[in-house]
Design goal:
The complex is a heterodimer of chains A (about 260) and B (about 525).
Chain A: H1 2-45, E1 50-54, E2 57-61, E3 66-71, E4 78-79, E5 84-89, H2 91-103, H3 108-121, E6 125-127, E7 132-137, E8 144-145, E9 150-156, E10 161-167, H4 168-176, E11 179-184, E12 189-202, E13 211-218, E14 232-236, H5 247-260
Antiparallel strand pairs in A: 1-10, 1-14, 2-9, 3-5, 3-8, 4-7, 5-6, 7-9, 10-13, 11-12, 11-14, 12-13
Chain B: H1 3-8, H2 28-48, H3 57-86, H4 99-105, E1 109-115, H5 120-131, E2 138-143, H6 148-157, E3 160-163, H7 170-179, E4 186-191, E5 195-196, H8 200-204, E6 213-217, E7 221-222, H9 228-250, E8 261-264, H10 265-270, H11 280-290, E9 294-297, E10 303-305, H12 311-331, H13 342-353, H14 357-374, H15 384-399, H16 401-406, H17 411-419, H18 421-432, H19 452-473, H20 480-501
Parallel strand pairs in B: 1-2, 1-4, 2-3, 6-9, 7-10
Antiparallel strand pairs in B: 4-8, 5-10, 6-8
Classes of the chains: A alpha+beta (about 260), B alpha/beta (about 525).
Chain lengths: ~260, ~525
Amino acid sequence: MIMIMQLKRVKRVFFNGLYFSIVFVVAFVIATQALTRKVNTYEMTKKPLFFSIEKERMTISNSVTGRVAVVAVNTGQHVQKGDLLVRLEDDSLDQKMNSLSALAKENLSAKTELALIQAKASDYEIVAPRDGVVYQIQAAEGSYLNMNSPVIILFADSNVKVSGTINQEQYMEIQKNKDLDVYSTRFEQIYKISFEGVGRVQPATSAEESRYEVKFRFSDANEGAAFIDGESMEAVSKNTNNEAMRPSVRVAKLWNSLIIGN
Amino acid sequence: MYLHGKFMNMNLKHFFNENHITSSKVLSTTTIFLFAAPLVIFLYGSFVFNPANADNILLYVIQVIADVISIMALLGLWVTVLLDVIVESHHRSHRVIANSFLIEKQPTVDVFITTAGEPIDIIRKTVTAAVFMEYPHETFVLDDGQSDAVKSLAYQLGVQYVSRNNRLHAKAGNVNNGLRHGRSEFFAIFDADQVPKKDFIINLLPYMNNAKLAMVQSPQYFANTHSFIAAGTSQAQEVFYKYVCPAKNISNSAFCVGTNMIFRRSAIDEIGGIAENNSEDIWTSYLLHEKGWHTLFVNEILAIGEAPATIVSYFKQQRRWAKGGLDMLLNNNPLRSKKLNLDQRMQYFISNTYFLVGISILAYLMFPILYLLFGVKPLNTDDGWSWALHYIPYFALYYMLSWLFLGRLYLATLSTAVASFYPYILALFSVVFETEQEWVATTSKKAHEDVFMKWVWPHVFIIILSLLSLVVGWYEPKNFWTAMFNTVWVVLNTYLLYLFLTGEKRMSKISISTDY
């Protein structure tokens, strides 16, 4: 009788223990999964996020055929709107002009033709259409250029964009708050940029999450001029306080403060 | 019958003393509830049911379902209490001084005590009290436990012993079996742990003067409130008997609670005996109402019972009640009944849907844990203050219900209410998938032999997960205040569940006066 009672008790203890272990293990597995997921997300989102400067590239071509007489600028030089970049020459046209100018006093048609050619002469002087920086010169002095060949490539000062690729979570964040701070290591300064639009969206696959190509402009339009095309800027997280510190760093800091007392 | 003559000479006046559970005065806090509830529900509903506030869509759908259920339960209570307060006439439970009925008609009464394996001491107390009730009556012990001890007890006390060789239809079958032996015009039913007072019959039987009345029900009152779980249970019951049951008198939909009532034999015969299923109480009343009979709830303590003091017995009792209500709701929706009037349909519907709150409680328990673990939430709570403004009053109202209705707030009540999601959901499952369960009486010995963890594993699981979720949630919280709020919520729930799980061993601080 006592044996049976004890057996029953042992059985009860066993089943209670079994239920408890199962419940505990399941809860533990769920929590571990959750923590792993959270740590991974954290590591991913806390990776520094770089954007790059995208300046507007202006390719300046010639509208007339001719020989390059003068290249007035050097690569990297800052030019202003209207500055002379390149002057072309056309010998046959010069000769024709000379002969025509001789004839022009008597012959009305020659005079008209001369006026037309002179009006065209401005095409032989290539000037900067906007403020900018000379990126490439594709004409050497003395070389002969066909019509519509690229002569100079400029980066415009105005209309500077900041572009980058972000994940969905970051995209949602940006959608909510259109402004973002970026840090330039070269100038050691924070700039404000604001969201302009999204370009290509790469949908999520099993291996990768979705990516958004986004563009920003400088909140202060004049600030962009100082940058070089392709220069990188680091996005600054809104909460750059303690909360965004890496857990390992935080533990280390706490430990240090305990040991060193600071 | 020899008692008759003695009875005739008695002055009946002193039997009809005031014996109400509480005074009929309405608490000022109850009036607060009446004003605040619609406001708070509107405030909460306007936030939750606005799809613009949805965050995770799956959780949002669950939240909306949970909220619909909990709001329905709260509105049901509101309507009931409102009726209670504004309709004066019924509030004193139709007291009739109809002793002439007893003296002139001399109706006969049987008393049935149903037993199914309860401890013999408890049965002895009940049977003795039943025998010594005033007014002549015949007492029957209906024993489903086939116990020799009960049999010899019956012979000792000189009462009839009725047993049967099966346990078909549990208590209903037991009573119907007893009805074959009883011959009286009226019969009372007591559970084995419900000790009737001397004046039980004298107080209730005069109402039967109304020939349309099929049942008079008196409340269950629990004396063992020193134990934590019993205290929690009995407080919830108190709200039920103080407000809900009297209000049902207005629409003639007071229903039987399974014990402490007197039935008219002819009415029960008309519906073919006590309804034979596991929740015979609500079904019997339902069938009576369909036949056009009247029922009455009399708010006087006329029997002292024992609330379930262990978790397993509490859960089994709750599951049995829930199963009855949900079974009626899903298989025989009272709203569609053609024989009941609109009020009655509403009242049955409110009573039955209450047991769905298990879903709501589980959802409310899980949401903060899910947020801390996975960062998913049903509602967009980024606009913290606007959200808190809508959210906090609603849950404060729910947590304060026992204060609003009874004027006092005990952790035991909250704790047992939160923990009872499991038996309700079990009942829902067993109704939906039509699985059978063995009926076990609240205080019977068998209830203790079960494996404890089988009944509380969801609670243990939630507690463990809550503690772990705190660790996960505070690893780089995305939003400090959301994490904070969810933490408070999780800690509170965990504490309540912990109190419940350890409640069997803890004595309650409540001491409801027992000067009956």
